[in-house]
Design goal:
2 domains; Rossmann fold; alpha/beta; six-stranded mixed sheet; 311 residues; five-stranded mixed sheet; Udp-n-acetylmuramoylalanyl-d-glutamate--2,6- Diaminopimelate Ligase, Chain: A, domain 1
Length: 311
């Protein structure tokens, strides 16, 4: 997925410290590859594997090499890069652009930036911003919380009690990420969940209305985002004999191509759903530590049966 220079500058304003030197009317140019390139080899005239679809960053090494050349050589080497129609040129360490770079930027219509960051740090931060901008994303119905470090998404039909359950968990000291609608972003094989900017830190409680969670419970009651670890679907209770009551056959749900553990919890009068969701999060945490209660009990039962059969 290609993004524009304008999207990069807007999203990375606080992290990249980019200053536009030339090219205000060319900010719609697309960055087709999210990696960053340092054109050291290209400056020597070797273009066989030149990554022309990437942003080109000129650091201390590139500047030192260019200054060792005569003005004619410098212009010829730089022209070879600009002829490849690269998305933009970025100069690190707040260095003043060489006259040849500025002139060729205007000649070829290539935006020119500079940043006060050192080259390696800028490349790391810019790569992260590009990863975030190009990561697969989706919006799902559900209330997201963090319970003891476990990211829990509560889903279910309207009126089933998702927000009320979340409110009880917040009252116990856990944190709200989003209510009702949750933004999902895939990065590195994991899903990061967050709230829409317009509704962040707010909840709708039936009969009460909209509440501002940190104002009621303090700043520790909210999280800007959290990793999704488990999805819990709340549904009306039905006497279903086929429902798994042991946990020996765990289910999964796929979100943005990532499989996430999936539980279904029946809701009925008198059941403390906050307590059950808390127990489910604790049980999942124990599984991560290698302690699976259902499997351990199953192994004990089978072992006991085999010992009796042997006797």
């Amino acid at each position: 997925m290609a993004i524009t220079l304008k999207e990069l500058v807007t999203s990375g304003a606080a992290r990249l410290s980019l200053e536009l030197i030339w090219g205000e009317g060319r900010m719609d140019r697309e960055i087709e590859e999210k990696a960053i390139n340092r054109p050291g080899l290209a400056l020597t005239g070797f273009f066989q594997y030149f990554a022309q679809r990437r942003l080109q960053v000129f650091g201390l090494a590139e500047f030192t090499y260019l200054k060792s050349l005569t003005p004619e050589e410098r212009e010829a080497r730089l022209r070879g890069i600009f002829e490849k129609n690269v998305p933009a040129i970025i100069i690190s360490r707040n260095r003043i652009p060489l006259p040849e770079i500025r002139a060729l930027s205007e000649e070829y219509g290539t935006p020119l930036f500079r940043t006060g960051m050192i080259t390696s740090r800028f490349i790391n931060e810019c790569t992260m911003v590009l990863e975030e901008l190009t990561a697969p994303r989706d919006r799902v119905q559900g209330t997201m919380l963090e319970v003891m470090g476990i990211g829990v998404l509560l889903q279910g039909p309207a009126g089933i009690g998702k927000s009320e359950t979340a409110l009880s968990l917040i009252g116990r000291g856990y944190s709200l990420v989003s209510d009702d609608v949750t933004e999902m972003v895939r990065s590195g094989g994991r899903i990061t969940a967050s709230a829409h900017e317009m509704t962040r830190y707010h909840m709708e409680i039936r009969g009460v209305g909209i509440v501002h969670v940190p104002s009621l419970f303090g700043v520790s009651s909210i999280r800007r985002d959290a990793m999704l670890d488990i999805v819990i679907n709340l549904h009306p209770y039905v006497n279903d004999a086929e429902e798994d009551r042991t946990g020996l056959h765990p289910s999964e749900i796929e979100i943005l191509g990532v499989k996430v553990p999936y539980l279904t919890l029946p809701v009925s009068s008198g059941r403390d759903m906050a307590n059950i969701v808390e127990a489910a999060a604790l049980n999942y945490k124990l599984k991560l530590l290698g302690h699976d209660a259902a499997k351990e009990l199953d192994e004990k039962v089978i072992g006991n049966f085999l010992r009796k059969a042997a006797n």
